[in-house]
Amino acid sequence: MVRLIKWADAAAREVWAFLKFAGHLARPSSHPAVQVSGLLSLAILIGLLAYISRATVHYAYIPPGESVLQQAELHLLTAVRAEPDAFKPNMRLPHRSEIRSSGAIHLKAFFPEYDLMHVDDPRVWWESDHDTDDVEDDHLVHYAMEIPLKRLIELVHREGGKLKVQDAYRADGIHYPKSLHKEGRAIDLTCENMTLEKLAKLCWAADFDWVFYEAPKGGGHHIHASVRADR
Ligand SMILES: [Zn+2]
Fold first, then answer.
1. Which DSSP category does 143 fall into?
2. N or C: which end of the chain has fewer CB within 10 A?
3. Strand 210-214 vs strand 140-142: parallel, antiparallel, or unpaired?
């Protein structure tokens, strides 16, 4: 934190020095070309500072004595959002479309060999491990889902439940054409020893970008949770 303040102080000094310099260049008596180039440099500098401040705002504070790895492990074990009071059938969180929350599918920028990863955990039941007729692999998810999924596995396990992955990456088949399952950014879940309402709450606490308690009239109730690609 002290380093960040020092950095901000140094940056402020630089900006002040530059503003003085730019002011000097842009004096009314200066040549118009000099004025324009001065203002142009100022605009570039402001843009640069805006970009840097956007980039630095995500830096996490690491307490002294704790390594980044320890922090990351801790981050995986704890909920990052409060559980909602209720999560009723057909409810979604946030209360808006999946596209607005997790982003639309963009298959042109999706490459299964680079974007997908294999997740495994003995505490989880994976549907494709028990289904010999199908070619799908429910261990395959988008890299963007790794942290919320691993965190969810931990949270469900701690509450005494057994997470069941019913469907993850699906290149084609049962899902509609723009389904995020086609990029491995959506996952369908059920649970043993835990209600679907509780599971939906934990998905939200685990930081999925969109959680939907799917409760079709014909049955097959499950939790569909998805993530943005640019997490
Ligand atoms: Zn789904």
1. G
2. N
3. unpaired
